[in-house]
Specification:
Number of helices: 17
Shape: globular
Helix content: 40-55%
Distance between the termini: 71 Å
Bound molecules: nicotinamide-adenine-dinucleotide
Strand content: 15-25%
Radius of gyration: 22 Å
Structural class: alpha/beta
Largest sheet: 8 strands, parallel
Strand order of the largest sheet: 1-4-3-2-5-6-7-16
Oligomer: single chain
Length: 422
């Protein structure tokens, strides 16, 4: 199909493969499908332009199809230079007639040009994974701020940035924090990232995890998923934390807890999942064993101090695709995966569709909610309304064929009372 949509993708000839993979993912996204069917009938987003900046994957393509079905005029750009699936980008443009700006491996300059191209779409709604569109709108494109009704934000790091903007009085429009929905972070961050991070590390290196010392930095929703799956593969998992409550949880979940300075000396594989900066720093790399593998699954590529590693290395070469080998002056070799970017989306395919079904159901319904409540929302970061969150859980269970019990009238009354004891 000859597209009329603006785009910058690697190669439109990749579209047929992208279409097949998008359809494959769609079969595992029944909740999103049901929302798409309703959107098609009700057109809740008719007349609205949406600029989305998300990982350009098969699952995201199905979200874009859903927004379009709801009447929105959509543009998509990448939320990470390495996470784009080029066949999906091609399919979006060529088959689904959706504007897309994303090329896997694009440099930083192109990455930001693509965000600017999305902002050129003059959106009424923004949809971010890491707050980059909102960042550009609040700096280089302030003249467009007045046209924006609301935004949505997909990930923990983005929500942290946006809450900081709200606290500073800098946030110019309301944003719905999709990450805060239970049907998002409890499943996507934990099970989706947990599985796909291990997948990315294995695809990049083909190492055996059994018997390895696997260090997970951060025991949040992502960290606990990674730790759980690494343990499942037979690794001895060590957790590093700064939060005493989470360190205690990690300990009682059966993991060894150490400061990074100690873990660095004994770990074989390291994976950061903190949303924080320089969690693996120069002094840690200096004491690591020969052959240590370093990966990150937190949002930005700042968790590992990569410039420090480059500074320490005498020689650098690509050992395999997505594996950079740094040889130190004492002969030790340290391996960095996927340039320190999200390893699960850079070296593997990201979260399985079945969890993204819930995340993107939240995105779709958050967009609808934002439009419906345009006049009343303030310039704040809002959670996804509980009713939407619970409805998604109910729908998800139904699509999985799982029934649960209902409170009896007597139980409902008992749980709401305070006067009945033993
Ligand atoms: N790879 C993916 O696909 C994917 C998916 C979801 C979220 N994320 C990203 O992963 C990161 C973590 O998300 P989350 O939902 O688990 O967040 P979270 O807030 O639940 O957990 C982060 C944890 O890291 C800990 N931490 C912070 N600084 C630390 C340090 N210096 N050393 C050790 N621990 C430290 C915090 O105490 C916290 O327990 C974020 O950047 C988020 O955006 C990535």
């Amino acid at each position: 199909m000859a597209t009329t949509k603006r785009h910058d993708v690697k190669d439109l000839a990749l579209a047929p493969e992208g279409v097949r993979r998008i359809e494959w993912a769609d079969r595992q996204m029944p909740v999103l499908q049901s929302i798409r069917d309703r959107f098609e009938r009700e057109q809740p987003l008719a007349g609205y332009r949406v600029a989305a900046c998300l990982h350009v994957t098969t699952e995201t393509a199905n979200l874009m199809r859903t927004l379009k079905a709801g009447g929105a005029d959509v543009v998509l750009c990448a939320s990470n230079p390495l996470s784009t699936q080029d066949d999906v980008a091609a399919a979006l443009v060529d088959e689904f007639d959706i504007s897309c700006f994303a090329i896997k491996g694009e440099d930083n300059e192109t990455y930001y040009q693509h965000i600017e191209a999305a902002v050129d779409h003059k959106p009424h709604l923004t949809m971010d994974d890491g707050a980059d569109v909102i960042g550009v709108l609040h700096s280089a494109r302030r003249e467009q701020l007045g046209e924006i009704i609301a935004g949505t934000e997909e990930t923990t790091t983005g929500v942290i940035r946006l809450k900081a903007m709200e606290a500073d009085g800098a946030l110019a429009f309301p944003v719905i924090a999709v990450n805060e929905a239970k049907t998002k972070h409890l499943f996507d961050n934990r099970y989706g990232t947990g599985q796909s991070t291990i997948d990315g590390i294995i695809r990049a290196t083909n190492v055996l995890l059994a018997g390895k010392r696997f260090v997970v930095a951060g025991y949040g929703w992502v960290g606990r998923g990674v730790a759980l799956r690494a343990r499942g593969m037979g690794a001895h998992v060590i957790v590093t934390e700064v939060d005493p409550m989470r360190a205690l949880e990690a300990l009682m979940d059966g993991y060894e807890v150490l400061p990074m300075a100690d873990a660095a000396k004994i770990g074989d594989i390291f994976c950061t999942a903190t949303g924080d900066k320089h969690v693996i720093a120069r002094e840690h790399v200096e004491v690591m064993k020969d052959g240590s593998i370093l990966a990150n699954t937190g949002h930005f590529n700042v968790e590992i101090d990569i410039p420090a590693i480059r500074g320490l290395a005498e020689e650098t070469r690509e050992a395999r695709q997505f594996v950079e080998e740094f040889t130190m002056s004492d002969g030790r070799r340290i391996y960095l995966l996927a340039e320190g970017r999200l390893v699960n989306i850079s070296a593997a395919e990201g979260h399985p569709a079945i969890v993204m079904d819930m995340s993107f159901a939240n995105q779709s319904l958050a967009a609808e909610y934002a439009v419906q409540n345009a006049g009343t929302l303030e310039r704040k970061v809002y959670p996804v309304p509980q009713a939407i969150d619970e409805e998604i859980a109910r729908l998800k269970l139904a699509t999985m064929g799982i029934d649960i019990d209902q409170l009896t009238e007597e139980q409902a009354k008992y749980l709401a009372s305070w006067d009945e004891g033993t």
